[in-house]
Write a structure and sequence with these properties.
Blueprint: H1 2-9, H2 26-30, H3 41-57, E1 70-72, E2 85-86, H4 87-102, H5 108-124, E3 135-136, E4 152-153, H6 154-171, H7 176-191, E5 208-209, H8 228-236, H9 244-251, E6 262-263, E7 266-267, H10 305-322, E8 339-342, E9 345-348, H11 360-364, H12 371-384, E10 389-390, E11 393-394, E12 398-399, E13 404-405, E14 408-410, H13 411-414, H14 416-425, H15 428-435, H16 437-446
Length: 452
C-alpha cells in the first residue's frame, strides 16, 4: 500500500543513537518525564495524551495550523521536509486538538481559532477533483510525494475528511462562529469527487489522480488494509457517491476479502494481503480507519470489525511475547509492530517482516482492543525506557536489539495515540463520527450493522 511506497521514497541520513535504558536525559527531565513512574494509570494516560497532542499544537506548521509530516528533534531532515504538511496526518491532528479541549490542555476558544485557520487553508489549497494531495507546502501548493504523485490522494483525503467531520459534529450546535466552521467543513466534504476516482466508472476506487499523469500511478485499492474509511466515505458522500458495487467488487474483491487465515491461535477475520500470503498486516490498519469509525458493534457481510481489530492487535502481542527471532526486549511489556522509521530507513514492520523494531504507536493506539497489554507497554516505556521519550511522547521507533533509536516523530504515528486512547477512555470520536447522518446513510447503503 501507500506506506510501502514511503519505504522506497523516504531517504534519510540515519544517525545511530544508543538506547540508554531508564536514565533520563536533561531533555526528558525538561519534558516532565522524571516523575511519571509514580503516576496513576489515569494520570499516565493524561500525560501521554498531552505530549502527543502537543505534536499537533505546539509542533504544527505555523501558517496552516496543520500537521507537519515529521518533526526531528535532531533537526536533520531530508530535502525540504521540515515544513511539509501531511494531509492524512492533519486529519488525525484535527482530532487530537479536540482531545486537547476535552482534557483541558487548551480552551475551546483556542481550538476554534486554530481550526478556523486550518479550514481556511484547506479551502484555498490545491485540490484535484475535490481531493487534496498527499503533501502540501505552506503556500498551499502541492509538492510531489513521488515522481507522478502530484495530484489527488484519495486515501489521505479520506483520513482528513474523517477528522473534519468529527470537528463538524463537535461544533455544529455551538455558537454562530462555531456553526460557520461546521458549514465550511460541510462544503469541503461535499466538494470531494469520490466518484471521479473510479476512473471512468470502474467498480473500484483508485488511490491517485494527477493533472499531469492522469491515472499512471494505477493503484486500485482492494482490501483488506487501512483504507476502509475511504470506501465508507465514498458511499456516504451527499454529492459524489459511489455505488455499493464499488465496495463489493473493488474493496471486497468479489468476496475474496473473506479468505482469512489463522495465526497465533486467532482468526484474522479477513484476508490481509491480496497479492501474497502474509498472515497479518502492520497494526496501523487497525487504527487509521477507526479513529472515527466505531468498530464496536460494526459488521457487514464480510466481517465483525471489533473481532477483526482485536484479533489483529492480539496477534501482534502474542507474536512479540513468543519472540521467535529472540529479539532483545520483546515480551509482555514491549510489543507492537507497524510502519515507522527503522534501522533500515522506513519499513512496514509486521510479524513476517520483523526487523527487531518496536513502534510505540502500535501498542498505544491499540488501547481500545488490548487495554491491559497496551497499558503495560505504556508504563514500561515511561518507567524503564524514558530515554526513548521526548517532547512529543515516545519517539517513533526503537530497537533494543540494535541499540538504536532516533529522536524523531511522524504525524501519522503520533496522531492515532491521543485519539485512540480517548476512544478507549470516553468513546469521544466514535460518538461524534457515528452521529453524522450522511456517514450513517453510507453505512446503511453498504449493508453495515452498527451500534446506535
Amino acid at each position: 500500500m501507500k506506506l510501502v511506497l514511503i519505504q522506497v521514497l523516504v531517504v534519510i541520513a540515519f544517525h545511530l543513537i544508543g538506547c540508554n535504558g531508564s536514565k533520563a536525559t536533561e531533555i526528558e527531565k525538561e519534558n516532565g518525564n522524571g516523575d511519571v513512574p509514580q503516576l496513576t494509570d489515569t494520570e499516565l494516560l493524561d500525560h501521554v495524551q498531552r505530549q502527543t497532542f502537543e505534536y499537533f499544537w505546539d509542533g504544527a506548521e505555523p501558517i496552516s495550523g496543520l500537521a507537519r509530516e515529521r518533526i526531528h528533534l535532531d533537526n536533520i531532515y531530508p530535502a525540504h521536509d521540515k515544513d511539509i504538511i501531511t494531509i492524512g496526518g492533519s486529519g488525525f491532528g484535527l482530532m487530537a486538538i479536540l482531545v486537547g479541549v476535552e482534557r483541558n490542555f487548551i480552551t475551546r476558544e483556542q481550538a476554534l481559532e486554530r481550526l478556523e485557520r486550518a479550514v481556511e487553508f484547506l479551502e484555498n489549497a490545491d485540490r484535484f477533483h475535490g481531493a487534496w494531495p498527499h503533501w502540501l507546502m505552506p503556500s498551499g501548493s502541492v509538492t510531489p510525494f513521488s515522481a507522478k504523485d502530484n495530484g489527488g490522494d484519495l486515501v489521505e483525503t479520506a483520513f482528513l475528511v474523517q477528522g473534519l467531520l468529527t470537528v463538524k459534529e463537535y461544533f455544529k450546535e455551538g455558537s454562530e462562529r462555531e456553526k460557520q466552521l461546521a458549514d465550511k467543513i460541510q462544503r469541503l466534504w461535499e466538494a470531494v469527487e469520490w466518484d471521479w476516482y473510479t476512473k471512468n466508472g470502474e467498480n473500484v476506487l483508485y488511490w491517485h489522480w494527477s493533472p499531469n499523469y492522469a491515472w499512471d500511478m494505477n493503484f486500485p485499492v482492494g482490501g483488506y488494509n487501512e483504507a476502509l474509511i475511504m470506501y465508507v466515505l465514498a458511499a456516504a458522500s451527499p454529492t459524489h457517491p459511489v455505488t455499493k458495487a464499488v465496495y463489493e467488487k473493488g474493496w471486497a474483491r468479489n468476496g475474496g476479502i473473506t479468505n482469512d487465515t489463522e495465526f497465533y491461535g486467532l482468526r484474522t477475520e479477513l484476508d490481509h494481503y491480496e497479492h501474497d500470503n502474509s498472515p497479518v498486516g502492520p497494526l496501523f490498519w487497525a487504527h487509521y480507519s477507526y479513529l472515527g469509525l466505531n468498530p464496536k458493534g460494526l459488521s457487514d457481510q464480510y466481517a465483525d470489525y471489533w473481532k477483526l481489530n482485536t484479533a489483529h492487535a492480539l496477534i501482534h502481542y502474542r507474536y512479540c511475547v513468543d519472540n521467535p527471532n529472540n529479539f532483545e526486549g520483546y515480551g509482555e511489556d514491549c510489543w507492537g509492530l507497524t510502519s515507522s522509521y527503522s534501522v533500515k530507513g522506513y519499513s512496514a514492520h509486521r510479524p513476517d517482516e520483523d526487523l527487531g523494531v518496536i513502534s510505540p504507536t502500535a501498542a498505544l493506539s491499540s488501547m481500545p482492543y488490548t487495554p491491559d497489554q497496551s497499558m503495560r507497554f505504556l508504563r514500561y516505556m515511561y518507567k524503564e525506557q524514558d530515554s526513548l521519550i521526548g517532547k512529543y511522547g515516545p519517539y517513533d521507533a526503537f530497537s533494543l536489539e540494535e541499540n538504536w533509536y532516533l529522536p524523531r516523530y511522524l504525524a501519522i504515528d503520533q496522531g492515532p495515540i491521543p485519539v485512540m486512547i480517548e476512544n478507549h477512555r470516553s468513546g469521544l470520536f466514535w460518538n461524534l463520527f457515528m452521529k453524522n447522518e450522511e456517514v450513517r446513510a453510507g453505512l446503511d447503503k453498504l449493508g453495515f450493522q452498527y451500534a446506535d
